[in-house]
Design brief:
This protein is α/β, with parallel strands linked by helices and 330 residues long. The chain is built from ten helices and 13 strands.
Amino acid sequence: MANYLVVGGAGYIGSHMVRTLIERGHQVTVLDDLSRGHAASVPAEVLVKGDLGNRALLDELFSQRSIDCVMHFAAFSLVGESVDEPLAYYRNNTARPVELLDAMKHAGVDRFIFSSTAATYGEPVRLPIDEDHPTAPTNPYGRSKRFVEHILDDCEVAWGLRSVRLRYFNAAGAHPKGDIGEDHSPESHLVPLLLQVALGQRDEISIFGTDWDTRDGTCIRDYVHICDLARAHVLAAEHLADGGETRTFNLGCEEGTSVREMIDVTRQVTGHTIPAVDAPRRPGDPARLVASSARIRAELGWAPEFDSPEQIIRTAWRWHESHPQGYATP
């Protein structure tokens, strides 16, 4: 049993991480300012509401909780917003983790799991994307995450910090119990947008480009279930606890699904029509983004349990159907 500090643990990915850790018998402290997270997504007794930039609060948590490992999920993650508000992204996604890392150094905590992103790679030059692919992020969001990865390297040289950086592709789905799930405002991810159409909250779904060089003309993405992401973090934490070295791993299913295919699966799962309309391409969208997760499969034994779009959509639908207004309606 270990004692984890999960920063941003009341968000979409963080809350599923917290659930997984608790189910495995670990002690968990969640630090979240709830600006984008939801108190209802985690047990009240583990939640500390506070700002990651509050150094006094960080020092108090480390002195009182005997933290073994820190997991960071507190980043802003909207690409378009990062272009419009770059300073907010560098402040939250880069500067605040620096404060966290300094508090860890002073507390003698030397294990860090970083929720990174495929956006660190930028435009793909080869597929599938492996961890040795060049990193050339094309927006402030991706750069803010890549900066932290560089900072982690420097901290390892300076004082022995060991970390695992997990670069996600498209996180999707919800906990199979249907009591926690995805609730963003505004919503920008394809799966919840599709389910909002099924619920009658949107009239239609837009397909941004139908003339891509893909099997059906629509963009292809690599979707990975949120619970599979959480399991990968557990394996990463165990790797560090066993004395393992710093590593970077991609998280994806290695199978791309097109936008049209996701729409068709959602129609089958929900029984709703899901009207779709063609729209112009969005600037910067690549035709395909598919991960190679061979490294984490080989080194940590990870493999997705929810490995089909139907499984991902079915769990997400269970959440959205029972919580049509998100956490506002338990």
